[in-house]
Design goal:
The protein has 248 residues and is an alpha/beta fold. The chain has a single domain (38-245), classed as Alpha-Beta Complex (Lambda Exonuclease, Chain A). The protein has helices at 8-25, 42-49, 53-64, 77-88, 93-107, 112-132, 182-199, 226-242; strands spanning 38-41, 137-140, 145-149, 152-156, 160-164, 167-174, 208-212, 219-220. A five-stranded mixed sheet has the order 2-5-6-7-8. α4 (77-88) runs antiparallel to α5 and α5 (93-107) runs antiparallel to α6. It starts with 7 loop residues before the first helix and ends in a 6-residue tail after the last helix.
C-alpha cells in the first residue's frame, strides 16, 4: 500500500521550496522604488485646480520637493497673538494699539519681505476688529486638519478658531498683495468645511470664513456645493495618478 507520508527526498527538498516561496513574497532590495505619499496644502490644491497644465506640474513639484522643508513660517503669528491677547484682556483696545505700534517699529529697517509680512499682520488686526471687535469671542487653539481622497492628503490649517455665542468660527486670513482669486477662495472654504466635518467640529458652513484685503465682507462657505466637492475629488484623483512622475 502506498504511504501517505512524504518521501525522505521530498522532506529534504521542502526547506528549499519554502525558502524560495518566502523570497517571492518578501520584496527584495532594489525591487521597487520608495513611493512618496502625495501631500500638499489647501492653497496649493486651489492653485492646481485653477491653473494650466504646465503650471500644475510646477505646483506639484514645489509641493513634493519644497525648498524650505525645515522652515515653517506662520504668516499671521503676530496678528493671531494680538487678537488672543485682546480677548484675554477683556477686549482692552490698548493691547492692540501696543501691538500695532510695536509692529510698525519692527518694520523699520526690516527687509522688504519682512516689511510686507508685518504690514499684512497689521491689516489683519484692523480687519478683525472691523468685523468682530464689538462681539464677545474667545480665541481657541487652531486645529490642524486634513482632507484625504485617493491617497492624497491636503493639509487644511485655518488661522483662527473663534468661539462666539456658543458657535465656532473657522477663519482664514489673506492680506498678501496678490491674494487668492474668488475661485480659489471657494475651493479653500469648501476644503475647510469638509475637513471640519471629518473632525466633527460642529462648524456650520456659514461660519467658515475667508477674510482678505480685496473684499469688504468675509467670504463665507456655501454648504450646497456638491459639484465643487466632486471637482476637488477629481483633482485629487489626477494628482494621485501623476504624483510618481513628478521629478525635481
Amino acid at each position: 500500500m502506498a504511504s501517505s507520508y512524504p518521501s525522505n527526498s521530498g522532506l529534504m527538498h521542502a526547506p528549499q521550496q519554502i525558502s524560495s516561496q518566502i523570497r517571492c513574497l518578501v520584496p527584495q532590495k532594489g525591487s521597487f522604488r520608495h513611493r512618496m505619499a502625495a501631500k500638499l496644502s489647501m492653497k496649493s490644491l486651489a492653485q492646481f485646480m485653477t491653473s494650466g497644465e504646465s503650471r500644475k506640474r510646477t505646483i506639484l513639484r514645489n509641493s513634493k520637493f519644497p525648498r524650505d522643508a525645515h522652515v515653517i513660517i506662520i504668516q499671521y503669528r503676530e496678528a493671531i497673538n494680538a487678537i488672543r491677547d485682546f480677548r484675554e484682556s477683556g477686549n482692552d483696545p490698548a493691547t492692540l494699539v501696543k501691538t500695532v505700534d510695536h509692529l510698525r517699529k519692527k518694520a523699520i529697517g526690516a527687509t522688504p519681505q519682512s516689511q510686507a509680512r508685518i504690514n499684512n499682520n497689521i491689516r489683519a488686526i484692523e480687519r478683525y476688529l472691523e468685523h468682530f471687535g464689538a462681539q464677545q469671542c474667545a480665541v481657541l487653539q487652531t486645529p490642524r486638519m486634513k482632507y484625504i481622497h485617493a491617497g492624497v492628503t491636503v493639509s487644511v490649517v485655518p488661522d483662527l478658531l473663534i468661539s462666539e455665542n456658543g458657535q465656532q468660527l473657522l477663519i482664514k486670513l489673506d492680506f498678501t498683495q496678490t491674494g487668492a482669486t474668488d475661485e480659489q477662495i471657494e475651493i479653500m472654504l469648501q476644503l475647510m468645511y469638509e475637513a471640519a466635518l471629518g473632525e466633527d467640529f460642529g462648524v456650520t458652513a456659514k461660519n467658515v470664513m475667508y477674510i482678505n484685503a480685496r473684499a469688504a465682507e468675509p467670504h463665507r462657505c456655501s454648504k450646497i456645493r456638491k459639484n465643487l466637492k466632486r471637482e476637488i475629488d477629481a483633482a485629487c484623483d489626477n494628482i494621485a495618478a501623476i504624483w510618481e512622475g513628478i521629478k525635481r
